């Protein structure tokens, strides 16, 4: 990554404000507010600014909660609110690293199993630890869990 996420947020906010794009501006302000909250929450542990991987996790959480809201709005027949949430998801996901496709995920899982030496489902934690260390930013670990389980014969 050429520039860090914080500077990308600032640049995108300036661009959105100049373009008078109210929806994008609002979403970017939400992201920066959440980032400030995350930084403040980390202060007691001596961290003044959270690292990139924690920012990525924060963005993933924001996108996930909005996806859940979209489902609820659709169930309630509130299409305009669902559309607003989907627009926010698009802005949030534009800052996330590209996710691995299924073939790359399977290859990473095979590699992690070999590296950890896991042979049974009881050693799934070792495999997940390797995946988390190497691929946390580009792999959805929630979807990886069942794949690891299947690969270990569980």
UniProtKB/TrEMBL annotation:
<dbReference type="InterPro" id="IPR019004">
    <property type="entry name" value="YqeY/Aim41"/>
</dbReference>
<protein>
    <submittedName>
        <fullName>GatB/YqeY domain-containing protein</fullName>
    </submittedName>
</protein>
<dbReference type="GO" id="GO:0016884">
    <property type="term" value="F:carbon-nitrogen ligase activity, with glutamine as amido-N-donor"/>
</dbReference>
<dbReference type="InterPro" id="IPR003789">
    <property type="entry name" value="Asn/Gln_tRNA_amidoTrase-B-like"/>
</dbReference>
<dbReference type="InterPro" id="IPR042184">
    <property type="entry name" value="YqeY/Aim41_N"/>
</dbReference>
<dbReference type="InterPro" id="IPR023168">
    <property type="entry name" value="GatB_Yqey_C_2"/>
</dbReference>
<dbReference type="Pfam" id="PF09424">
    <property type="entry name" value="YqeY"/>
</dbReference>
């Amino acid at each position: 990554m050429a520039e860090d996420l914080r500077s990308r947020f600032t640049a995108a906010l300036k661009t959105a404000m100049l373009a008078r794009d109210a929806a994008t501006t609002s979403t970017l302000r939400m992201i920066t507010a959440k980032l400030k909250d995350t930084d403040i929450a980390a202060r007691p542990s001596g961290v003044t600014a959270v690292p990139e991987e924690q920012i990525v996790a924060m963005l993933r959480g924001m996108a996930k909660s909005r996806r859940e809201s979209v489902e609820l709005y659709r169930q309630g027949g509130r299409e305009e609110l669902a559309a607003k949430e989907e627009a926010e998801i698009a802005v949030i996901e534009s800052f996330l690293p590209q996710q691995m496709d299924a073939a790359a995920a399977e290859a990473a899982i095979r590699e992690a199993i070999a590296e950890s030496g896991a042979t049974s489902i009881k050693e799934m934690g070792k495999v997940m630890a390797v995946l988390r260390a190497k691929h946390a930013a580009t792999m959805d670990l929630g979807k990886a869990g069942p794949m690891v389980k299947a690969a270990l014969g569980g």
